[in-house]
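so ive been stuck on this for like two days lol. basically i have the seq below and the ligand is 2-acetamido-2-deoxy-beta-D-glucopyranose, smiles is in there too. i just want the complex predicted, nothing fancy, no docking runs or whatever. if the output looks off dont worry ill sanity check it later, just need somthing to start from for the group meeting slides
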Amino acid sequence: MTTKSAVHILACFLQLCIVNGQVICERQMTAEWRVEPNHNVIKWTPRENICSDFYTECWNMNKSISGEISEERNLSIPQICPLQLQLGDSLFISSEPSFQSYGMNLVNVSKEEFINCPKAGFLQEQMIFVCQIRGLHQVDPNWLGVGTHYFAELHKRGPLLCDMGLRLNITVKQQFCQQSPNAPLCSGHGKCLSHIWEKAYSCHCFSQYSGRFCQKFDMCSTKPCQNNASCTEKTELSGDSYECTCPPKFSGKNCTEIDGQCQPHTCFNGNCSNVTPNTFLCECDKGFTGPFCEDPGDSCASQPCLNGGICQYNQSGYVCDCPAGFLGHSCEIDVNECSSSPCQNRGTCIDLPNDVTCICLPIFTGKFCERILNPCELLPCLNNATCVAQQQNYNCRCMPGFTGKNCEEVIDYCRLLSINCLNEGLCLNIIGGFTCLCAPGWTGKFCQFAEDACLIYPNSCSDGGTCIDMSQLREQPLFQCLCSHDFTGEFCEVKVDSCGSSSCENGGTCVGYEDHFKCRCPIGFEGERCELDIDACLFYNISCAPGALCMDKSHGLNYTCLSPCIGNTEVCANGGSCFYDEEKQRTHCVCALGWTGQTCLENINDCGVNQCQNGATCEDGINKYRCICPLGYSGTFCEFDRDNCTGNQCSEYGFCHDHLHNYSCKCVPGYEGPFCEVEINECSSSPCKNGATCMDLMGHFSCHCAAGFKGETCSVHMNDCLDRPCWNGGTCEENINDFKCNCPFGFSGQYCEIEMDECESAPCLNGAVCQNDVNSYDCFCPEGFEGLNCEINFDECTYGFCKSNSTCLDLVADYSCVCPPGFTDKNCSTDIDECFSKPCKNGGHCHDLIGEFYCSCLPGFSGQFCEAHVAACLSQPCGASSICKDILGGYLCFCAPGFIGNNCETEVDECLSDPCHSGATCVDHLN
Ligand SMILES: *[C@@H]1O[C@H](CO)[C@@H](O)[C@H](O)[C@H]1NC(C)=O
Ligand SMILES: *[C@@H]1O[C@H](CO)[C@@H](O)[C@H](O)[C@H]1NC(C)=O
Ligand SMILES: *[C@@H]1O[C@H](CO)[C@@H](O)[C@H](O)[C@H]1NC(C)=O
Ligand SMILES: *[C@@H]1O[C@H](CO)[C@@H](O)[C@H](O)[C@H]1NC(C)=O
Ligand SMILES: *[C@@H]1O[C@H](CO)[C@@H](O)[C@H](O)[C@H]1NC(C)=O
Ligand SMILES: *[C@@H]1O[C@H](CO)[C@@H](O)[C@H](O)[C@H]1NC(C)=O
């Protein structure tokens, strides 16, 4: 099978409907086993044929009727329309053209990996193809065994396209419809079918048949039991069989026999015959039924009229009123409408009931091939292009984004604009443009921004560390690891020794476990490392006098009570309160918020722990601080990056790049200027040499070289034939500074690039249609002509239609037979019945010969027409003396005495009777 027809089959097999941008996969809920295996081509591209919703798109069914497959409920997995194949079907994968340079492979995955998309770490055995593929490749049949298989896209680098739908669910089914390998499917008495959710094909029998392979005929269905008897199927191995249970008075295998013996008139309209000494049977006359032939039957009941004929009664049975196109008593004859040769221009005629269909030669069309085809009628232009007919050719005007003779190709912007998707992104052509498919973690039109460094460097924080992205759409990915408490280091790669030197504070005892430790704290301390001194003053049962200050002591749950200072209260500055510590015999200041120090003179540095971000400077205040933001940031904590890109003026050919306090525009190739608003005229630097014409394209230029030059900038002087400048098999001849192409027949031009229109010289004769071809032409001859140029009036006599040694005369598209005597009709095939005029008279029998007849006459007649009576006695057959009398068919002789015999030819010997007595000698005389 050619690729073209394989693709055609694909188009039929995978017909897709696109509704509001969604792909709905076309589904047959029940499929019949095909005898011939199919070739399926799957286009492996994210651009088409990708469905998402399990029910409404991929399997195209109503959610309400799908209770049977509750497992997949609510699944929305973008995927290539799932396939159902027969065991033995072949599968080809055609890889996305945009990605061809990247190469790709498929990998066989589990159902879970299919649903969640595979991550990494595949074995060579899971690869569907031995190496990276480009173009069309066949999947080895070993991957297509019975069952459901899941394939997903695998790339050496770049983004995982599985998430975009590049994954495929293939279910391969076998059939259980044949009793033995060569037996017909379902014994020819049923269909081999599979519902979409069934795992295999099995037989569905026609009525009257049953059994796994429809091999059993159900005898009872033929209603063999008469007279309301009931029928029971017998399942003996002896074969198909049944048993009738007869009502009273009836017996016999089919309950047709009646108890008793024949009496006169027992059977009303039929003959009675005794079957056994106790039973009889009525054999009914035509048209009667019933056990006693009492019932006039309905001759139309058996539906004798075929092909839609309408049955009507009459005395002798029925007549059929046949529909047009049918004849015969039962409308069984299909009139051959092709006999009138309705197809023109040598189309082939196929007879249909009361109709014909003509299969036309190329370039003809119409029901009777009567019209020359307008090439646009074949709808050659794809993708909504407009077709413009030009005599026998056509031109397609493509919609934006398409190209190719039939607008079948999506313009390859990735290559045309030399798009470089950064950071392992893949460039994908979309209609009218391109898009970069970014590797995980990257974003931006060209994948230039890091969006999530944790995706870019997966698993970079070891030992359960949590990765935190810090990239904030910069070009460099940044992340930090938040380690679990047993680990430390930039990537949490350093393990903390569980009972290291000073794990427990304040005299806590360390108890080491395998991967962690616990501190047993002394009284008055708590916390994981006993780092918290419990404030004894917080307990309700302290007994300090009113106005006194409770102060926690650093060991144990001990406290001391300080009474307010008496007299000199100015000791504590900045609003601090003064207390006297009797134990230490000195004053103690309790400072107002924001102050500290022995006498509350020190301003607490609130910047010690601050939340200023993005390199802001912290300015300390009293019990507060202020963040002084660097340029480009704002907010209390300078947490807002002032995005100078919002409302930027970059043109559609540039993307904005945010800097600290301004922005710049990065231009796509081919544009320049502060806002990428100027299309670079690459021709302005006159790059094309040697008199070439420069064409400014987006991002680059193209040189059309003057004759004799080549190369990107036409800088290479072509001065010899080494470059093989001659096309279409032309031979190159070197001249000084020049060359000459000697073109093969059918081509002309400096490089033999012009294909000659061989039809121009009107080579086709006798009104034939000319079609140009490479180096040749085809003439489509009108009926009756043949030959390369239709110059030969086809000799229809060679068909040998003239029969009976007639002479054939050739006419234009016809012939004539000159019949020898005795033959008639166009082909002289009918022998003229010369007896038709009943030429033989007097009961003579006529024999039809070729061109003549012969009469065999009854006795007594003669002549060509038996017209003459034969006067038999004229020849005196009875001898002279006897009397002759003509009779019908002969004569009678009345013999003279002494003679006997039919013709009186015998003389009687009278002596024989011994008439002479006493020794006398007898002498015989006449009479
Ligand atoms: C794959 O297709 C089969 C039917 O061919 C279906 O039963 C199954 O649920 C599908 N699997 C997934 C994960 O969609
Ligand atoms: C019974 O009916 C079957 C089927 O109609 C027929 O073939 C068979 O000859 C009948 N047998 C007798 C004994 O009438
Ligand atoms: C083709 O044209 C029809 C009618 O104008 C429109 O509905 C359809 O979306 C077009 N299809 C494409 C692929 O552009
Ligand atoms: C209070 O501290 C003293 C030592 O200063 C100590 O001996 C005593 O046990 C502590 N009391 C409590 C209840 O911890
Ligand atoms: C950048 O943004 C800031 C605040 O939005 C603004 O004050 C400054 O003028 C902008 N700079 C430019 C070059 O637009
Ligand atoms: C045709 O002619 C040949 C010889 O002249 C003769 O043998 C043959 O019988 C003829 N056939 C018919 C159908 O007359």
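Residues 1-20 have pLDDT under 50 and may be disordered. Residues 3-13 form the longest helix (11 residues).
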